[in-house]
Amino acid sequence: MTTRSDSAGPAVSPAARLLQSPAARHVTRYGLAYVLLGLGAAFALVPFIWMLSTSLKSIDQLFTFPPTWLPDPIVWRNYLDAWQALPFGIMVFNSLFVTALAMFGELSTASLVAYGFARFRFPFRNALFLLMLATMMLPWVVTLIPGFLIWRWLGLINTYDPLTVGALFAWGPFYIFLLRQFFLTVSREIEEAAIIDGANAMQVFWHVMLPLVKPVLLAVALLSFQGNWNNFRSALIFLYNPIERFTLPLGLQFFQATLTAGEAPRWHYMMAMSTLMALPILVLFFLAQRQFIEGIQLGGVKG
Amino acid sequence: MRLGFMRGAGVLAVSLLAITACTGQTTSSAAPDESGGAASEAPVEKVTIRLTTWAGEDESAELQELVLDKINAEQSEFEIIHEPAPADYYTKVQTGLAGGTAPDLMWLSQEYIAGFASRGALLDVTELVAQSDLPAGQVDSYFPDVIKTARYQDGLYGLPWIAQPVVLYYNPALFDEAGIDYPDESWDWDTFLEASKALTTDADGDGVPEQYGFSLNGWPPLHMFIWQAGGEVIADDLGSSPIDSPEAIAAAEFYSEMIFSAECCPSEETLAEQGFSEMFKAGTVAMFMGGASDTFDGLDVVGASVVPSGPANRTTFSYTASTAVNSATEHPEIAARALVALTEGIHHWKIVAPRTDLLSEDVILASIPEKWKAQKEPQLAAIIAAAEDMSAFNIIPRHQEWDDLFWKEFQDPLYHDQGTAAELAAAARAKLEDVMR
Amino acid sequence: MLEWYGATLLRYVAVAVGIGVLMWLTHRGLRRLGMRRESAIGLTLIMPWLLGFLIWNLYPIAASLFFSFTDYNILQPPRWVGIDNYRTMFTSDPSFWPSVQLTMTFALISVPLGLAGSVVAAILLNQGVRGVGLWRTLFYLPAVLPAFIVALLWRLLLLPTRSGLINGVTEPVWSLFSDTPPGWFLDADMVLWSFVIMSFWGIFGANTVIMLAGLKNIPRDLYDAASVDGAGTFSKFRYVTIPQLTPTLFYLLVMGVIGAVQVFDQPKFVELPAGSPNFLNVVVYTQAFAFSKMGYGAALAWFMFVVILLLTLAIFRSSSAWVYYEAEVRERA
Question: Chain B partners of C183 at a C-beta cutoff of 8 Å?
Fold first, then answer.
């Protein structure tokens, strides 16, 4: 809001004064925002509430018509039963293990590679960058089997390697591209100042570049966690036995009933586990987004 | 400088060595296709036979407890371990087959066996199974129409472990209310249609019935009606699809008359809204055609009858699945023995076992889980009668494509009134036969 | 059981060290060859990706291209058929061009709409409202749900009867045109719009988070300078926010196009009516794994690849006209 010194006018009435008070200004300025936020949040909550509600229903209540939002009775036991139906305890550990390794790999190598693409000129740079992007443009279906064969040749089927070690090779052009965009927004002067002070490339990277793109680093960390935590496809084709080796998303699929089982899918268990699976991401997000607030860049240099 | 280079190369070499060493270790301990356990020469060591299925959590637990644990306790030669893949099953199986990591035994739904066998992925077990002395190895004791789904050309590529004949389930309470006699073996298409219409009531006259007689949405399969009319969908010689024969057309017309028709059945939108099987469970649909092992939570009493008979016969549709042996298995004889043992076990676990010698009320009742016994016991007579007259598809190697075309080129337009049965059948036939070559 | 983790951990560390060493060696090697410092460092930094490409991407990409010229049923070795697959695809597959049309129209509509939505959402979430952390978490909530749950939910929302939530709410609108409510997922003509609406859901998720990061990345003193120059809220938006956001917008545009043309999860979970063509990636999956026609699937996939590549190149080409890198303040008259 701009402050203009043009309030030299006729005396204002009490009502008008009220309308100009800080509280009123807050409401008028943010009123529309609150309305839109409220609407959006309502939309956002609908599937979550539905998921929660289904997770608390008993099996014969699952698909009554018209759909009920408040289960009656509320079956809190579903969570316990779902948890005990499969070795979820160890699966949580497996998911954490895989996610931690993959996240670290993705974050470290993606930021290094992005830094290289963003701030250094070298032969074939643009062609290589485009090549990197191109690897995202081929539908996964047709590279699934050849990719599988490579891991087979290494003898690493039925291990966690395909889900983790690959991350060290910056397997996510997604993140490289994003980080590169943000590195490109950092002005040259800051970098040059550091170099004049005697910093080498790695020091510039660590002490200058990374802190300046902290908001997006956090976004990448969050997305990386989520991507690996929810990764189903790799777990499906690479992990065979025993069940205790599986990760959570794979474990969740067990609640689908099958053609030959005669009974309906256990949606309530599936929703219960899905809710539990979603919680860590939400917690992480809530914690991380606070950092977004403090991530405001101070003192950028005018170009 | 040079020293630094040497050091660097040294570290690199060590790292690579470490990787290889660890890889080597894993190959022997975790790569599951090197089955055979530690010692292939010592006969005391049990051979590991890997089985993959699409079983969900409940089914897996039952399979393990009721079938596999018993087999593994009795057998000294092999041990079956179960590797379930509850989602995207065929993607995983095919990827595994392509990569040589697929298990020794695998469940295959009927429409996949011919395709896999024709491509050399399955082992012909005719001779190996004949050597077995377990009842499940007596191929002649299987229902002929069921075991044919596991055959391809002259070979036998699996053993069926289930036959699901379709029966007509009904809600007796709704019949009582309407004063209509329960369905029985005297019913034919006409009585069936009449009853469906009579059971479709619109008490408040708003044009939308509260209760329907029957529901159709592509299930039950049109094939069943075509067979009952004396027609054929895929000829026995697998060379033609005579869906434009007068019999087939008659069946298609009957089916399309009923489907989504407000006189007897819910509209497509209503089905999307309320769920196909959910409507029967909720008591808004009086009759439902389902497999023999279907159970309905939400209803206490569910009657069952054989399906109404068509102009030519009363054959019912049967769904079946088999366990097949991977042609790349390292232990063909042992895998075949495991196959028979496994199948024997499943025949006493699932209903309906696809063997004529097991078709009795006692056997079937024993295989039903405790909590469903009460609901299913009155249905057994109908289930047995249905099993005695069931037919399965003739299956061609490119069955999935054929099925897709059958739906898109014939059934879907027919049910949405985009052409007459005769026109659509003639046009679709050519495309279907393309896939059969 | 412990050896599952131990073995992987060991190899993980070994590979990490190995890559580090290789990078160091590359740097030395390149400098030894006389390369400029900047180039040597740059190439060294991208080594992990380059190595990964050579090991994990090159063979699969080449293999899939090869497959597209073969008849490959997965279970048997591929059999060369030349350009047959492509010929069938372009000339005798009646569902091909409709699928292309559906997919491309979907991409061209949903991506810009989604971007606009994300900008609005991100700006909303960047305001100084109370409890902004809570709002942001709520907005992100849908993104943590598994895809099949979202698909189920949309099936519910877009039920083709009056009791479907959307139909119920919009009754005053559609009742002007017809007696029956819109068929959404059951109606072949409405499939495109059903999925466009579903794609809106993407606003609640990664795109908005990234956009937020982009907003946060704008140096505050740019706004201060603009204020000093007398700019109002809208002017600041137009002359500071948008230009500073262009790197992020560029990223989301490219990624959006790449993703939209390859849309898979939603159409796989929400079945389309048989009378409607399906989205290209689903067709690839069906051909490859359900019909075991991997060769034909590969041809389709490579067609998609070329289309996406051309679109991306076009966006890159245009970027010099509208994307601004490095903190700059636009001179205002």
Answer: 269
